From TrEMBL:
Required cofactor names: Mg(2+)
Domain PAS positions: 147-217
Name of the protein: Diguanylate cyclase
Pfam family, one: EAL
Single GO BP term: phosphorelay signal transduction system
CDD domains, per the entry: EAL, GGDEF, PAS
Occurrences of domain Response regulatory (ranges): 14-128
Record has Oxidoreductase as a keyword: no
Organism in which the protein naturally occurs: Thioalkalivibrio versutus
Length: 711
């Protein structure tokens, strides 16, 4: 704003003089020109209006009394046109009313004729100063208005809620964003307390925050709050609320300290944070706690058990057959199965227990505050029982069993690692015994079984170094007690781990596909050994080999298999391949075609472990199957009267379908006798000894016949 006395450059102002008296006009012009003012003259009201229309003048010296259009007319014109030219009325014989009228019409000042030149110049100077001030004011106001408009646009278009609170925490102002984000009408909020908008669980936090924010030295500038929606159809949203108190009296409204604030919608961020958090501690597929959370919980439970002198149990639950299901039916089915297994397991546990998906098909369970070892075994039994019913996934019925290892604190370890490791060891022992049950860890179980990676590396070398060999298990004619066939079972002489059974390495071999080489090796070796020994008096002895689904599913399986058979010249009708039910379930025309080709070549086909998978007899009827091998878990129910009927049913139905039957897992004479009474034609099991080298079996063959003859 210019100072009142700041000099005005005469060259920069434009002055118009209007008078009907040419003499006066001339003398005024002369006077002002000498002072350096550029001046234009108008000889009368009409000329003045014309000049004013033409361009802008800062100052007009206007004679009031002029013929035709007089001074008042000119003033009225100026008012109507909204001109900002300042007017000084110069009047000779005009009355006081005339002058007053002129001032009313917008004149700024007046000068009475005759005047002293000095008086005129002072009036002109004053008027110009006034005009300069007015102009400066106007510019300032325009600038202010512009900046206010700008601020309004910014505030109203801000992506954040912008608000002003009074010292009583009631809204004085809030922008329209509050309606878009929360559904509150702006006017409804005015005079309402900000706390009405805060969700109850954040109320205390909000009160503390706004109290301290209004203090002279606030130390927290922002806070995260959940705010209530204005309509029930909307969901709550999360905001980062920041405030600035206006302790400055310029900002204060009627002396009241205001609080300016913004609230930024951070709902998306919060939700993704929550998701990331959940993800960090949960398995997304089953939504169960993951390994990390499980470890945390076990840690906490151990410290609690230490203080209170109580026990806790860690259970390691490993599903059986999951891998085969996953491979043959696809990952989508596998995933859904895992989800359902998770739900069933969850239904078996109490509130304080933690069930987690440890990885793959492994689950772990923490049971804190354990009353006794038996309590943990009971939970494990309950879990196994809950898994017995088939899982209906799509239109499939799937069966999965589990092996469970239990480690009890403090006996099986006093730290997290030891407990998990030992539960795993116990589970592994249970699984490698071929059973699907529960085992509690005891120190005599020894160390950890070899882990996948080591096995995988070792297995490649083992194939080159010939570390595998075959043992045979006799298949015995139930009537005569004679060995009519043998099943080839692979073993691994591991250089450091000792003799390993298939349960310990076949899962890894299948995962790495090394099983293809293993199965071909078994086939060749077994045929060679059979040929060597059958020449020695057992020309009719049949050979059964196990084939992994991984091998059968290969495109070149049939050519490759028949190729080996052709090379060796082994009679196909003495060879039986054992496949699993799960392979059949993949039900591709491809598999059926392959099996048909094998059958056409004379090879016998057996379904191994029948009853543990999910095929039905009617289904098998459509396939080229010669033999059913009843799984040992059914054979073992023989002595339990209520359950033995499953074996009866399988045998009579298989007979109806003209299939050969081999009952596996015959361990006792009672088993054998029962099966003989049912006319099950063939049996296999530890009753005839552990799997052994072929020559040993052949040397002792005579022994088999003996027991069957005595009742
Ligand atoms: P499987 O084909 O059902 O073989 C029978 C398994 O039951 C053998 O276990 C055998 O030792 C065991 N067994 C036999 N009689 C009894 C008994 O009376 N009671 C009990 N509790 N168990 C008995 P093994 O040798 O550990 O083989 C396990 C599985 O590994 C086999 O089950 C078979 O599926 C697989 N397998 C073995 N050799 C090969 C192979 O060369 N290739 C493939 N792909 N799989 C093989
Ligand atoms: Mg078998
Ligand atoms: Mg079997």
């Amino acid at each position: 704003m210019p100072e009142r006395d700041a000099p005005i450059d005469p060259q920069s102002v434009k002055i118009l003089i209007a008078d009907d008296d040419p003499g006066l006009l001339e003398s005024l012009r002369g006077l002002l020109t000498i002072q350096g003012y550029p001046v234009r003259t108008a000889a009368g009201g009409g000329a003045a209006i014309e000049a004013l229309r033409e361009k802008h003048y800062d100052l007009l010296l206007l004679d009031l009394t002029m013929p035709e259009l007089n001074g008042l007319d000119v003033l009225r014109f100026m008012q109507a046109a909204g001109l900002e030219t300042l007017t000084v009325v110069v009047s000779g014989n005009s009355t006081v009313e005339d002058v007053a009228g002129a001032l009313r019409e917008g004149a700024h000042d007046y000068l009475k004729k005759p005047y002293e030149p000095a008086e005129l110049l002072a009036t002109v100077r004053n008027a110009l100063h006034h005009k300069a001030l007015e102009d400066a004011n106007r510019t300032m106001r325009a600038r202010l208005e512009k900046s206010e408009r700008l601020h309004r646009v910014i505030v109203n278009n801000s992506p954040d809620i912008v608000f002003v609170l009074g010292a009583d925490h009631r809204f004085r102002f809030v922008n329209s964003r509050v309606h878009e984000l929360l559904g509150h009408a702006r006017r409804d909020l005015i005079d309402r307390s900000v706390f009405d908008l805060v969700e109850p669980e954040d109320r205390d936090k909000a009160e503390y925050f706004f109290e301290q924010a209004a203090s002279p030295h606030p130390h927290i500038r922002s806070v995260e709050l959940a705010l209530k929606p204005g309509t029930p159809s909307r969901t709550r949203r999360f905001f980062e609320v920041a405030v600035w108190p206006s302790s400055n009296s310029d900002d204060a409204d009627n002396g009241e300290t205001l609080i300016y604030g913004t609230a930024r919608d951070i709902t998306d961020r919060k939700e993704s944070e929550a998701f990331i958090n959940f993800q960090a501690y949960h398995d997304l597929l089953t939504r169960l706690p993951n390994r990390a959370l499980f470890r945390d919980r076990v840690d906490v439970a151990i410290s609690h058990a230490q203080r209170s002198g109580t026990q806790l149990a860690v259970l390691f639950i490993d599903l059986n057959r999951f891998k085969v299901i996953n491979d043959s039916l696809g990952h989508t089915m596998g995933d859904r199965l895992l989800q359902e297994v998770g739900q069933r397991l969850q239904a078996c546990i109490r509130k304080g227990d933690t069930l987690s998906r440890f990885g793959g098909d492994e689950f772990t369970l923490l049971i804190p505050g354990l009353a006794s070892n038996e309590a943990a075994i009971q939970v494990a039994d309950k879990i196994l029982e809950s898994l017995q019913a088939p899982f209906k996934i799509g239109d499939q019925e799937l069966f999965v069993g589990a092996s469970i290892g239990i480690a009890i604190y403090p006996d099986a370890g006093d730290n997290l690692e030891a407990l998990i490791k030992n539960a795993d060891i116990a589970m592994y022992r249970e699984k490698s015994s071929g059973k699907t049950g529960v085992r509690v860890y005891s120190p005599d179980m020894g160390g950890h079984p070899p882990r996948r990676l080591q096995l995988e590396q070792d297995m490649r070398r083992a194939l080159e170094r010939d570390e595998f060999h075959i043992l045979y298990q006799p298949q015995v004619d139930t009537e005569t007690g004679h060995m009519v066939g043998v099943e080839a079972l692979i073993r691994w002489d591991h250089p450091t781990l000792g003799l390993l059974g298939p349960a310990e390495f076949i899962p890894v071999a299948e995962e790495t596909r090394l099983i293809v080489d293993l199965d071909r090796l078994t086939l060749r070796t077994a045929i060679r050994e059979m040929q060597r020994h059958s020449r020695a008096g057992y020309p009719e002895l049949r050979l059964a080999v196990n084939l992994s689904p991984v091998l059968v599913e290969r495109d070149d399986f049939v050519e490759d298999f028949l190729g080996i058979l052709g090379e060796t010249g082994f009679p196909p009708d003495l060879l039986e391949v054992e496949i699993t039910e799960n392979l059949l379930m993949s039900d591709t025309p491809d598999t059926v075609h392959k099996l048909n080709r094998l059958g056409a070549a004379g090879v016998q086909i057996a379904v191994d472990d029948f009853g543990t998978g999910y095929s039905s007899l009617s289904y098998l009827q459509k396939l080229p199957i010669h033999t059913l091998k009843i799984d040992r878990s059914f054979t073992h129910t023989i002595c339990r009267e209520d359950e033995a009927c499953i074996v009866n049913a399988i045998i009579s139905m298989a007979r109806g379908l003209h299939m050969n039957i081999v009952a596996e897992g015959v361990e006792t004479e009672a088993h054998r006798d029962y099966l003989r009474d049912l006319e099950c034609p063939m049996i296999q099991g530890f009753l005839f000894g552990q799997p052994a080298p072929l020559h040993t079996l052949l040397e002792n063959e005579a022994l088999f016949a003996a027991p069957t003859t005595c009742q």
